[in-house]
Amino acid sequence: MHVFTTYDGTELAYHVQGDGEPLICLPGGAMRASRYLGDLGGLTAGRRLVRLDLRGTGDSATPADEATYRVDHQVADVEALRVHLGLERLDLLGHSAAGNLAMLYAAAHPDRVGRLVLVTPTPWAVGLSITAEHHLGAAGLRPAGEPYDSAAEALRRLLAGEGADGDRDLAAPLFHGRWDDAARALHAAGAAERNDKASVAFAADGAFDPPATRAALGRFTGEVLVLAGELDGSPPPALAAQLAEIFPAGVLDVQPGAAHFPWLDDAPRFAGRVEHFLTTGT
């Protein structure tokens, strides 16, 4: 573990794995410790992963001002990390909710970003909404039988605001391409690794200005990979395609059989695709 001090005096932690050119990795959750990213399916074979624990998560300190959990304030944390590492430009990966942080950073500091990887991103920052229909449409792609029948029913209750204790656990298989031991372990660790107060503040009022962000990203000249899971509803591939089209050099890739955590579903395919993009820009 390594520590640096960001703009407001908060000490933030980051974790380094692998060798090669650095890739800054921002975890989703929202506001979950970066531990769950692991080595991102073996990306460490060719890259030095720098996993940032966002403020108030993992080994990072809690800020004095909890309003700074809002995602737009955290752009300055990513910039402070870049300066701390002595990087003129950085390659950046954001997963899930952290896709918003990665996009806001690219919009604010376009000259500091080399290549941008958005893995199953929730695209609130550009005004694209993930709806109940998206989630239920993805659930309908699963085969009949358990655990998916119970998962779909639990998801419907959650989306209707009628969720009961245990429904989030019941619905969890829908966020994974395979409901195997690795998927169960990642889900089981989630509650302890996420800062719930920070998660609520992450997208609080004022966090996003979609027209301004769309305009800024429309001028961003770096290559961007939007990687979606074929079975994911957050975002579904069609919405991910709309996000990719915002970028002048945006590329969409849909990983077959994958859902919200594609490096677990097919590690070689995921790592190979991301490495190819980081090497070639395509």
Features:
282 residues; Rossmann fold; 8-stranded mixed beta sheet
At a glance:
With 282 residues, the chain is α/β, with parallel strands linked by helices.
List the helices and strands and how they pair.
Elements: E1 2-5, E2 11-17, E3 21-26, E4 47-52, H1 71-85, E5 90-95, H2 98-108, E6 113-119, H3 132-139, H4 148-159, H5 167-171, H6 181-193, H7 196-202, H8 210-218, E7 224-229, H9 237-246, E8 250-255, H10 262-265, H11 267-280
Parallel strand pairs: 3-4, 3-5, 5-6, 6-7, 7-8
Antiparallel strand pairs: 1-2, 2-4
Helix pairs in contact: 1-2, 2-8, 3-4
Give a verbal description of the structure.
The protein is 38% helix and 17% strand. The protein is an alpha/beta fold and 282 residues long. The chain has a single domain (2-127, 194-280), classed as 3-Layer(aba) Sandwich (Rossmann fold), CATH 3.40.50.1820. The protein has an 8-stranded mixed beta sheet with strand order 1-2-4-3-5-6-7-8, sandwiched between helices. It is globular.
Strand content: 15-25%
Radius of gyration equals 18 Å
Envelope shape? globular
Number of helices: 11
Report the major sheet. 8 strands, mixed
**Mean pLDDT score, rounded?**
97
- The level of helicity is 25-40%
Poorly predicted runs: none
CATH topology: Rossmann fold
- Tell me the CATH architecture: 3-Layer(aba) Sandwich
Count of strand segments: 8
